[in-house]
User: Fold these one by one.
Assistant:
Number 1:
Amino acid sequence: MKKWKGLAVLGAFVLFALYVLVNQMNLNPLYPESAFIYCVLITALVLIFTLDRVGKLMVVNHQNGQPNISFVRNAKPQRWPVIVVGSIWAVYFLVLIGSSVLFQVNAFRDQMPTLTEMDFASDFDTVNTNQLPIVDKRMAEKLADKKLGERPSLGSQVVLGEPTLQQVNGQLIWAVPTYHSGFFKWLTNMDGTPGYITVSATNPQDVQYVDGYQIKYQPGAYLWQDLQFWARFTAAPFTGITDPSFELDDTGRPYWVITTYKNLRGFSLPEATGAVVMDCATGESNMYSINDLPEWVDRVQPENFIMAQLNNKGEYVHGYLNFSDKDKYRTSEGETILYNNGRCYLFTGLTSVGGDQSAIGFVMVDMVTKEPHMYRISGATETAAQRSAEGEVQQFGYKAAFPLIINLNSQPTYFMTLKDAEGLIKQYAYVSVQDYQTVGVGETIQEARLNYEKSLRSSPTGQSVGNISGDLKTIKGTIQRIGSEYSSAGTVYYIVLNEYKELLFTIQGSLSDELALTKEGDKVEMTYYPKETATQDVASFDNLEFTQANSQA
């Protein structure tokens, strides 16, 4: 009997160890998934050591000679095993129920800090239209895949991981890691996959393959090189970890930033506490609290944590029993990552419960500190803005990407790209947040902006919207300086006139063929809508030197 017990105990621990290894289980019983398995293990051990005291197996031969095995209970079975097992499971379910919203409604509501109301015009960076992030995640994947296809020998060895938007040395990029394409590829390249791909978020033509860095530890790899496995058992065996993010430091060296978290109430309300920062090549890691993170780390807060906390704050604003839905709100459909003043934020709209196309405001949550900024601007939701932009080009069937909110002359505005069925950018669109029927589309960013400003003037709010003031103005002058710059939006020309030296005029190259031949000293005529800034966007351009030459001819 003792031998049987020993083998059974050994078998129980072997199964437990296999479960821990296969599922990379957190060894801390304060987490629900771990607590459940510990309860199962203890129950099994108690049964192994006490089963013979409760009863025993008997083999009885019937008249037909066939043996029958049955379990015969003792006359006075011991109660302590039942008490021990019952107490363990009772504690588990009490903690599980006690940490539910039914008993922790205030904690659910207050996990997200109070939304600090901010002034949009003063807090939000005024956008530079030449630096708008026009490449979204889906497009970054396609561009990275195309770059990988330029190296046939490499493309057969690796596949691409999930792109991560980040700011490196002031440039907004998508970083895309390479992964092993299968077990045998891993077996023959155990030093890791060679490098990663960067895709500029502002210029689809700027796609770079970066080699010289091995990515040895990666999601979905095998045995000890699996990222979750290595992080769990070398860096955080007793700490909750989630949401690994592929990030680059200021030198371009790749790291995994893996969020650490704890539960604030029993088994509920996971809260980010910091991150494990792991070198992709060596597996060396350091655990940091939120306050001690390296400056280049852009995000720690998991998006699903933030969205859940925002929705909890809106759902339980007046407690659990708020059947009238007074003051309730929820996040709108969809969220996005954006950068403001060099910080990474999660952006989403807020709508009242039961609302559809209207937003009561917008919230940006810092992806490191979880500091929430609230902009109380009534207007259209992101989905409504997308449908409005698509309606302007319905004859083409273009689909709008998820919009980005920008500060355009102190006017909160949605900006989005319009794509064809292949995911290629065909046009750009601006949509007013306050009135989603005010739309401007164009084949270039500058053209879309000019059309949007015209639409603003004809909107019910008219010239009072934003800092755009006055009617279309026509001026003549002599060019003092002219220069050009090429970007993903096309060629943009910059002009200073002798008569208006305090103003800088920007002109989209597609506006006039004469721009390419224009030089200092030429007399020109331009129209523009005056703005309360030194930079003015030109609506039409005419080089009078060419006009005069044509008239003389």
Number 2:
Amino acid sequence: MGQIIVDKNRNPIIPLDYPDPDVIRVDYVYYMVTTTMYFMPGCEILRSYDLVNWEHAGYVYDRLDGTQEQTLYNDKNAYGKGMWAASLRFHKGTFYICFVANDTGKTYLFRSSSIEGPWKKSCIEGFYHDCSLLFDDDGRIYIAYGNKNIYITELNDELTGPKKGGLRRLAVSDEGNDRLGYEGTHLYKINGKYYLFFIHSLREKWRRVEACFVADSLEGEFTGRDVFNEDLGYCGQGVAQGAIVDTPEGKWYAILFQDRGASGRMPVLIPVSWENSFPVLGMQGRMPEYFCVEDKAPEYHYRPLVESDDFKDECAVNKERYGCFGLKSAWQFNHEPDLSLVQRDLSEGILWITTDKLCKNLTQAKNTLTQRMLFPGCEGEVTVEAAYLKEGDYAGICAFQSCYGMAALTRRDGRLYVVMKARKAEDDSLQAMEPDTSEGTEWELCHVQGTKVRLKVSVNFADGRDQADFFYLDTQGKWRKIGITQNLYFKLDFFTGCRFGLFVYATKETGGKAGFADFKYIKTV
């Protein structure tokens, strides 16, 4: 058995956008599920042997319901919606994942005998916001859920809906909190007592805090209080919402998330102790400078959650490593892809994407291929083959969010240009921007020779700056900045951290295509 020392500077343990974590342990292996919203494949599961290092284990679904919103049909989309805050459980040899999708208004239940799948999909009657499943010792099954008012409902044995005559009760209320009431529920039974964990905001100012309530029975009174109010020294951003989990040695930890600006919401690891059967997170409410975790696989090599790609891998045989429709699992498409428009040239290492609809801007583009951005800084670069672009097409690499920025090749009057376009944010608040019907602002346009150009996006999230710069490689082999430095923001209309995106879209006629080669992912800060 190995042991690794983790200090507070390792938090966030995953410096990527993995919000709303739920974590379980099965024997010596930990599994985490987080919110993936509208990205496909969806509902990503991570695996760890030490609670600090994590890798991709699988996706629960390739497609959810194939609605017009989920497929970016016409002008419809699922931005800011999709699957949220899943509950992950393991009971009698079966894994269960339950979540709601805010675009369809349904509660989904997936189950599998293996974490890698295949997963069987069904629905639970009703809509259970930020739900948490509990398989009780007596064989009864409950779901806890809600916002401000937290309810517990007993489910039938088939998990298709509420049990007739079963328990349904209001457990805890945070009415009167105009900022954020209790939500992000996690329900546990530990040593005969029932625990409800929540996220909410302080009432006097916006700040995420974690709360816990306990009862002797599900019918009894839940009493509790805030148990963690800490920002880890980052911009006053609180830490809350997530799971608690024990180790084989009997130690306890919480994995919650923290807002890190435009880069997203990131898991942090916090030791948990117990006083009079009540959890104590951190030490006297603070994150200790050092703490230890046991590593059951000290020689294990974790695969990266983000990575470069030469698009040459023959990958159909390994679903875990190539879980994005045959592409590396680090990738996700923005919305459900149309694979008839995506082709791969393995010998040349080129990913071709063809257009089949007209778009006003980047956010409407189908088959945009994305990866999360590393905090506190990273770069993504790619070579774009533009020989088959049609008039008015755009193809390139972007900082993907509602206030996007992009470096792209475009064809105008038969000539190729590199262009930087962006959509400026209306303000720096969390509030959603108005629906994007604009074409974005063009900040610079440069004529280029040849049909292949290398493009780059460089982002810096350090100290809350949250900015992106855009470049192209000139004929002398030097990077030239193009356009403006784009300010990036986390906003509620997309509700996700900024990502690298490889894209092509048409504005005048369909049928053009772009090739993407030699994507490089570089950690810079």
Number 3:
Amino acid sequence: MGKNRQSFKFKGKLKQLSLISLYLGIILALVDVFVYLCDYKAGLILTGYILVYFAIYIFLINYNKSIIMKELVNFGTHFSQVQKVMLKELEIPYALLDNDGHILWMNELFEQITDKSAQFDKSITSVFPSITKDKLPSSENYVETELEYDNNSYQLKMRRLSIKELVKSSNLISSNGSEDNLIAFYLFDITAVKLALKEIDDQSLAVGMVYLDNYDEALESVEEVRRSLLVALIDRKINMYISSLDGICKKLEKDKYMIVLRKKAMETLEENKFDILDEVKTVNIGNEMSVTISIGVGLDGLSYAQNYEFARNAIDLALGRGGDQAVVKTPENIIYFGGKSQQVEKNTRVKARVKAQALQEIISTKDKVLVMGHRLPDVDSFGAAVGIYRIAKSLDKKAHIVVDGVSTAIKPMVDLFMSKDDYDEDMLVSNSTAIEMADSNTVLVVVDVNRPSITECPELLRLCKSIVVLDHHRQGTEYIENATLSYIEAYASSACEMVSEILQYIDDGVHITSEEADCMYSGIMIDTNNFMTKTGVRTFEAAAFLRRNGADVTRVRKLFRENANEYKAKADAVSQAEIYKNSFAISTCTSEDLDSPTVVGAQAANELLNIKGIKASFIFTDYQNQIFISARSIDEINVQVIMEKMGGGGHLSIAGCQLEGVSIEEAIGELKKTLDTMIENEEIKI
């Protein structure tokens, strides 16, 4: 102990404190020298005092070293115990983990929350399954995340703590060369904060627009004296429904309403799948046609104005998809509800006339016109492009149809024009040529498609400032933005039908050749499956217009006769069909020895609908490293919503999608899983 006492030295503040007495003694010695000069006897007395002072100083220093060391050790020990108790009883759940995530130590609150004992030494994943080893912080890294546990929400913070110095000085453990770290694991209860934030969020504003889809048509189907009663009943139905959700409904026009709701009410609407869509249809006072409504709702915007803009976009999307549905738009996504009814054909052609005049004005202000459809163009796409080509030529504008590769589906049509001297050699141009032609004085007309990703040449959408979209497919989440003119009518049977109507309003009608009439008539015929699906009065009026301009039914039929391989492939697809849940026909179509297997697949899907009891058919075709799905129905199943859930789209009775990176077997499995989920959620009924 004596040796230890001698080797024990003060340092830092304690050393400075102990040296103060020494410094005072030295000062006193200097004063003694001065006293000697003044009085020798007084100097001797002071010298004696100084010697006694230094003797006592040396004695106290040596004597108190051991006492001070003992007191410091005692204090340190007690202070360490206080720290340990404070850490153990810390009001924040806290644990220490090793590099692999095993629990080494936890405080009392952590034990209470997890209901584990202090001896629990298993992986943290066994307590919190979401915290796997890959979620742990890397070297000297800091991780912050949220987790749910036992109906509470926690903010989790993890950080690595280096223990290299502790390992070096330890007599019990040694380092094996790996990183010497512990992981500090903190939990902060944020349940109350999240509940408060959710309460605030639930009270935020949601803006909606409600439009009556077929207001005029429904009124015409009821006696004039009862029309006001029908309108009053519809108003009452909508107002009562919105009032039950603690919302406000204001009628803007005869067939338009604006609604204001709390966001919490939207949860009820979504849970009920917007059953107001079906409730309005029950209003009947003798009207032959049920009234349908479209709803567009915007929420989660940065401002009320942005929510209103979202609502306007949503209602446009709902109407563009055929009506009788609700669309909810947020900054992140778009959700669809309803859309189970067949689209109602409008009797008036006012819209077609207005769009035709707008198209004429746009083309008249440009020097060149580029027309393109979708990839792997079909007869409807090419026929509509030919109609726009004829409009541009009648306005003395240079026009070109963008076709990057002539498939067998349109080859008979293309040959009609290539063999005629009346048409320019550059009537058809490739993608690369079209890109070179595109400039600020070019108008791009997109037909039979409204999704930019599947257009013939998406690059043209960026290069051309003036864009016109003419399509009969329902709009989806992806659409062509900033179009100068957009004419999308989901009730139309085909793009060729729409273009045929437009032709009649350009300069009091455009004269078209028999080849062009044949081409457009073919588009209508193919898309309506020989006038058996999606045909209305205006479909036959368009066909009649084309017949008057030289379309020949016999000539068209000869153009589209199938070769033996195509006929056999279609027959094989039909014969090998699997009947799923007694309602869905699922089969595959080979692509071997076929120039246009997707067309054959679509034809096979149509054939399967002739089987009694089949409500929808799906044909899978492996072509160009993609799986093409052709979906068809008559009127009982909405195949569009099925295909949308798989990334595609289309119409209520005609739809499709393309899958990449999967086999046909996997694609069929995905379809069955989608059907099962939709049946379970009552989105489709069988």
Number 4:
Amino acid sequence: MKKLLKIFLSLLIIISPLTISRAEENQTLRVGMEVNYAPFNFSEVNDTNGGHPVANSPGEYANGYDVQFAKKIADGLGMDLEIYKIEWDGLIPALTSGKIDAIIAGMSPTEERLKQIDFSIPYYEAKVVVVTQKDSPYVGAKSIDDFEGAKITGQLGTFHVDVIDQMDGVAKQEAMDSFPTMIAATNAGTIDGYISEEAGAEAAIASNKNLTYIGFDEGKGFETSDSDTSVSVGLAKGSKLTEKINKILGQIDIETEQARIMGEMTALTTDDKEASGFMAEVKDIWQTYSGLFLRGLVNTLIIAIVATLLGFLIGLIVAIIRRSEVSKSNTPILYYLHKILKIILGAYVEIFRGTPMMVQAVIIFYGLKQYFDIDLSTMFAAILIVSINTGAYLSEVVRGGINSIDKGQFEATKAIGLSQFQAMVHVILPQTILTILPSLGNEFVINIKDTSVLNVISVTELFFMSKSVAGSTYQYFPTYLITAVIYFILTFSITRILLYLERKFSDKDFIMESSTGAKNV
């Protein structure tokens, strides 16, 4: 137990600097964007092309049309710019909870969004097109009504999904989470095309030579409102920044700057795309973005290791409390307190085992900030969420391990005068821990993979880094092949190490020897 306490204290020391995010500063403009939607916002490995550091992903730089306008706005406000990489679905919760000050991410001020947040005047006007394969039977379409039978989709949470209803006879598909996902589906032929705005379509086809996009003449395209096709800065309701940002944007020739900046950003995302063959593309992506993959890998390992150890300690404590008994006749107050505590711990186990970790992450990360003004850093929130989730599962594993110990040993400890605590520490737990060691190793491997769901709260683990690379290069399959290989090598290596440790600690003498050095009965 002393060793476990030392481990617990050491882990607290390690993660204590990560507990609370930086306090809000009046001179800093915190901007949220995906950093995976070229040419609006995409990831780079340095600032050579005018990129800006990503605050929550050290070593990563954001660039694109949105980034350049974010710089203009921050300069106009006389504020320092901080860019935060946040999933599309997490942008509005991040804004309303106060984790960021503005959304500059190619977002349109639709009616639904205006109910939640305010918007500035536009800084971009979009043209809506359909991306499809070059050899698609619909490639010669002149009107949106020429897609009868086509399987068409759009990005989840955008007006692109709604305008599909204007296309007569199409087979509208379920909305997808990102443009790289839709590009991959179009390349694979599982869908016939997707809705995009023209600049994004140009970047997509530059990186995917078998794709093209179809534009439409006036009167033959989509009927859209200005709020659909314009792109504005998202701001919290009643924000003091809205008027100031409108003034800054009002002084910019948007049409001229749109043509100039979008041309530059599109060129950046289409340069050096001459690699021939799939493996050449894989090699090119690894050579360019290996630093981002490795940083994501390190964060994944930190979260998995620390959270598994903390989760094990939580599970151990919960299992012991739920397994222990308190005499009502000797200490009635303690008896009832123990009963209440067991009910609370039982509810904790059921809730965290019965709900997805992704849902838990959103509630804890955004909910604590919005309703209790507790601003957790993403890394601390990740460790906290995975630890609590792991603790709920491992408490049942530990309970099962304790129950597997022969009842005669419990009776024997009473017979030789050991207290319930002494019996648990010196006799029961040493055997239990070794019995459940395979389950602990399995939970560790699961946590390595489950960290991927934390991208919903913008934790820069391996999967989230991979999404940035895929969204910046529009090379979906090569990027995720690299990611799959990294995950496989990692889990395979760790599994072999755990099997070795399991064999080492399965020595019969070690199992039977108590922490006092005496042989157990």
